[in-house]
Amino acid sequence: MEVFVTLAVIVAAFIVYSLAGKMKQQKAEQAAGDGPIPVKPAKNVNKGSVKWILAAVAILVLAALVFSSMYQLQEDQFAVITTFGRPGVVSNPGLKFKLPLIQKKTIVSKAVQGLAIGYDLRTNASVEEESVMISVDFNFVNVDFYVEYRVVDPVKYLYNSQDPVGILKMLCQSYIRDTIGLYKVDDVITTGKSEIQSIIKEKISQRLEQEDLGIALVNIAMQDAEPPTVEVQQAFKAVETAKQEAETAINNANKYANEVLPAADADADEILQQAEAYKQSRIAEAEGQASRFRELYEEYAKYPEITRKRLYYEMITEVFPDVKVIIQGADGSMQTVLPLDDFTGKGAD
């Protein structure tokens, strides 16, 4: 809009200059007496034309000034208004006004913006001078980052530095290389990405506060991390495949252990219960035999001879269950006593 106002003023000045030149030329011709020129009427006609032209130019300039004093501010925009070199910030959206030709307006975006480190955003092609880095174990690694930032103070963003975004990019490159150099290449490519991103973000945020550029870091993300050559990439892929296979084997082993151990624990519990039951039965049996021996001893103490004979016959019955007892009489006759239980007295028991 300021350009339009400037053009309108230039056009108006050109028109006024042209009219002044023509009027001067007519006066010179009249003074020289070049022909019978009616001086009075011509002068009246020129004055009327000049008035209308000047009025039109004035309206044009006034309209341009009015339109240049208005602007529409969006929700995601700041407006920095400079009055005689002193900046002020307008952040509320809507239709705004400023003094034409006195105040200068600069629009600054509030939205989150991004920049790439290690690759080209338009073509997605790798930029090796930014992406190739060296790890703590002296291996080369190709790393890409995407940085998100936003303007938090538009005045500082415009006037505290000539290129705040360029400074941010240089800071990011510096801290990225510094942090990658503290990790092994395996950590950079596989498990250490989240930790690396967090450390880099913290370092850059603290440095931006010191630099006071008017911008804040929103996020920094590691897009890709891979070895710079095909051979090394294949080697790392093989290592990663081996790690995955090892994890799969460990998971399968844990699964098998989870299936087998409960059954083994159940068998062990059953065996322990059986052993306990056998133990109790043996104890009961031993106690019963001890009680029987005590009873026998008590009987033996009362009737030792009878008890000995009874024990003898009981043992003979157990050792020779089918034995026949033959009794020979005084006259030489033989008599068989069957069964032995009757003879020993067990049948009576």
Task: Give the helices and strands as they follow along the chain.
Answer: HHEEEEEEHEEHHHHEHHEEH
The CATH level-2 architecture of the largest domain is identified as 2-Layer Sandwich
Q: How many E strands?
A: 11
Structural class: alpha+beta
Proportion of strand residues: 15-25%
Total separate domains: 5
Unreliably modeled segments: 39-45
Major sheet description: 4 strands, antiparallel
Query: What is the CA–CA distance across the termini?
Result: 135 Å
Assembly state (oligomeric) = single chain
Which CATH class of the largest domain is shown?
Answer: Alpha Beta
Q: Could you please describe the fold and organization of this structure?
A:
- With 349 residues, the chain is an alpha+beta fold.
- The protein folds into 5 domains: 2-68; 71-109, no CATH class; 113-228, Tetrahydropterin Synthase, Chain A; 230-302; 312-344, no CATH class.
- 59% of the residues lie in helices and 19% in strands.
- It has 10 helices and 11 strands.
- Strands 6, 7, 8 and 9 form a 4-stranded antiparallel beta sheet that branches.
- A hairpin with a 5-residue loop joins strand 7 (132-134) and strand 8 (140-151).
- Helix 1 (2-32) packs antiparallel against helix 2 and helix 8 (230-302) packs across helix 9.
- It is rod-shaped, with a radius of gyration of 57 Å.
- It starts with a helix and ends in a 5-residue tail after the last helix.
- Mean pLDDT is 79; it is low at 39-45.
